[in-house]
Amino acid sequence: MKSLTKPEINASTHPVKILQFGEGNFLRGFVDYMVDVANEKIDFNSNVQLVQPIPQGLKNLLDKQDSLYHVLLQGLKNGKSYEETRLITCLEGINNPYDSYEDYLALGENPELRFIISNTTEAGIQFDPEDKNPGILPKTFPGKLSALLYHRFVHFEGDPSKGLILIPCELIDKNGENLKKCILNYASLWELPTHFSEWIEQHCIFCNTLVDRIVPGFPRDTIAEIQKNLGYEDNLVVMAEPFHLWVIEGPAEVEKEFPLHKAGLDVKFVTNQTPYRTRKVRILNGAHTSLVPYAYLQGLRTVRESVEHPEVGAWLRELIFEEIVPTLDMDQTELKAFADAVLERFANPFIVHELKSIALNSISKFKVRVLPSLLAYHEQKNKWPEKLITAFAATILFYKGKVAGEAMPLNDDQEILEFFAQAWNDRENLVTTVLQNTSLWGQDLSQQKGLASVLEQALLQLEGVLSPS
User: Is 125 exposed, middle or buried (0-12, 13-18, 19+ CB in 10 A)?
Assistant: First the structure.
């Protein structure tokens, strides 16, 4: 079996226009895949320099394979099984700043550099006031980035044309704005010249983004067969679903300089990404959060079998199309198309998505993902949505901890688990007690007219069907 090397595949070369913090599965199966497609289809002409954000990472493996790897797309597309394999050749190499801080800072001297992309987990964009010395490698990602940007600013003597476009992919709201705030905080903490902060404000663009693609990553169970089919010993294969969406909020020049949509990729440039974030949270995430307790109580264990179940699948579809989609203030045709895509993704036969893996922190997720749809439906129609109420009741029953003699896979803060354990000890007042807990919902839901009554009825119905112990 052949080894992956650039001379072996005769890889084309491009200038490095992108500096990417993060070398994990998601960025390689999402961003780098798209850049590679754009290089081929629209001559985007850009390579990606990786930066390893933590001491231990993939540098050794990437170096061994000349930063080459394959992306394997598997899933459903328009209702049919779809598979695609692509060799990714756009990575220039990987830098580990923990090996040499000087070599890392020198990356900022690249005159061709135009974009910074990152995915350092939700906790990655944070300011640490203890990062007081930029002369040594800062602890946080924004600290490391601030040091590099300042090095670039000094190297090019504050040249306005050397400002950069920053496109973070961390899964937090207003990720670009938060990253910018951190960098300005470091500039203040380190007492850097005011001209640097002005350069950041005036000549660097920080985009808020929304990213969406399920990337299971390395297909460990089938890698031997995959490598045989590829003809290469690739130990960095990334498996991903066909669906992808990248919403980038920024000025028109970002779309002009980063035109990935012209390569047929689902990249949207918008002036406000909030509606798209709301759409994803309410439909995709809301459907997941609603489904988990209801389907698990029915004896189902994976997302796919739940969607394909004749009764549970129909229940979920009605919940999405009749009770969530109508509450959203976006084009209904576009919303329904997105919802169809969500259900197709849930039915992906190549991904085993266990319900218990989505059950983490279900109460806080319900508050953010499901409760807004439930309340909006009531406000619009002056009645409570049947399926969402059932999902709410199923969540309360799920948090009983043991149903029909079986332990539920609860995974939440101890304080929340203890609250529900105590609440279930007083079954007669259970629903009211849960609704009145403002720390769970951010409001006293017992004040919502008729909610306690319909929720109690739904809970009684579930208990009757499941005959819990």
Answer: buried
Which DSSP category does 217 fall into? B
Residues linked to residue 168 through DSSP beta bridges, in sequence order: 118
List residues bridging with 270 in a β-sheet: 249
> How far is the C-alpha of 8 from the C-alpha of 448, rounded, in Å?
67
The tokens describing 145, both together, are 């980035």
Tokens representing 372 are 């807004």
Number of other CB atoms surrounding residue 457 within 10 Å = 13
Give the CA diameter of the chain: 73
Do 265 and 351 sit in the same domain of this protein? no
- Of 270, 287, 311, the residue that ends a domain is 270
Residues 162, 59 share a domain: yes
Q: Which residues pair with 410 in a beta bridge?
A: none
Q: Is residue 1 part of a domain?
A: no
Residue 359 in tokens: 């059950």
Digit-coded pLDDT (tens) for 131-187: 999 999 999 999 999 999 999 999 999 999 999 999 999 989 999 999 999 999 999
Whose tokens are 């909020």? That residue is 249
Q: What is the pLDDT of residues 234-275, one digit of tens each?
A: 999 999 999 999 999 999 999 999 999 999 999 999 999 999
Domain boundary, last residue among 218, 253, 270:
270
**Are the CB atoms for 122 and 172 separated by under 8 Å?**
yes
Q: Are the CB atoms for 22 and 120 separated by under 8 Å? A: yes
- Which residue has tokens 């969402």? 388
pLDDT of residue 431: 98
pLDDT band at 122 (very low <50, low <70, confident <90, very high): low
CA 55 to chain centre: 23
Same domain, 252 and 107: yes
In degrees, rounded to 5, the angle at the alpha carbon of residue 110 between the alpha carbons of residues 48 and 260 is 35
